[in-house]
Amino acid sequence: MPRLFIYHIEGALKPKNEADILTAQFKIMEKRLWYIITWPSAILTVLFAIWLLVLMPDWLIQPWMHLKLFFVLLLLLYHLKMHKMVLQFQRNEINYSSMYMRIWNEGATLFLFAIVFLVVLKDSLHWITGVLGLLGLGVVLFLGIKLYKKTRKE
């Protein structure tokens, strides 16, 4: 979704005729992606997660699951913020730069990385190592965005 927002933002900066065509197309694509794919996927994911926890209630007492559920909550909050952004873009209220959206795009990557590694490694990884790894990934992603911006300007 943020990738489409980047294109939408950059398309709106084109000459008026081109911007009007691009903006109309991006709004259609954003609306379809959000309401036909993203929301149903989020709802199904939450329902299946609840079902799994009902089937495996012992997982709820394990510390790694508490941390995982915290990151899932952050991901759900990210999703709700994205919903607000979708509504803004549909109203042609572009309040973000393409650079901001590039950084925002990596937020979900960090959450998903943390969630998957918590499930795979569970208690075999010390929490300090996990936090350092997550921060390291964040720095690498940010540096990648900066490098992309620099090479794009050249």
- Low-confidence stretches are none
Choose one word for the global shape.
flat
Give the SSE string. HHHHH
Main structural class: mainly alpha
Oligomer: single chain
Topology, number of strands: 0
**Beta-strand residue percentage:** under 5%
**Can you give the helix content as a percent range?**
over 70%
Radius of gyration: 19 Å
Terminus-to-terminus distance: 27 Å
Largest sheet: none
Task: Output the number of helix runs.
Answer: 5
Q: Mean of residue pLDDT? A: 89
The number of domains is 1
Give a concise summary:
The protein has helices at 2-12, 16-55, 63-90, 98-121, 127-153. The protein is mainly alpha-helical and 154 residues long.
Textual characterization of the structure:
The structure is a single chain. This protein has 154 residues and is mostly helical. The protein has one domain (2-153). Helix content is 84%, strand content 0%. It has helices spanning 2-12, 16-55, 63-90, 98-121, 127-153. Helix 1 runs antiparallel to helix 4 (98-121). The longest helix is centred in the N-terminal third of the chain and has 40 residues, at 16-55.
Task: Summarize the topology.
Elements: H1 2-12, H2 16-55, H3 63-90, H4 98-121, H5 127-153
